[in-house]
Amino acid sequence: QVQPVESGGGSVQAGGSLRLSCTAPGFTSNNCGMDWYRQRTGQQREWVSSIRADGLTIYADSVKGRFTISEDKDKDTVLLQMNSLKPEDTAMYSCKTSRMYALSTRWCDSNPWGQGTQVTVSS
Prior knowledge:
The protein is mostly beta strands. Helix content is about 0%, strand content about 45%.
């Protein structure tokens, strides 16, 4: 098992940008997908975006057009570029490998959540 490591969070003003990273050694060789979730204080975890091993990307309606997910396979890393940030984007952002592709191995579903990176957007 590998626990993904997130980074890139911080505090920004509304309208600003941040780029989050999620690194999970083995992500590429196992043809994993990667999911980003966020959790606001006192609320349940909310799905944000996913990228599949073949490059397919999907987004929650709340972030579509503002967030872009991409991957750097050489570094086993997935990036989440967040633009036009809003106060309601404030949350702890976490990533997790997932098995969402025909060639993904079972390893992709065996890994825990990362510890997360905090994003705070002020108005």
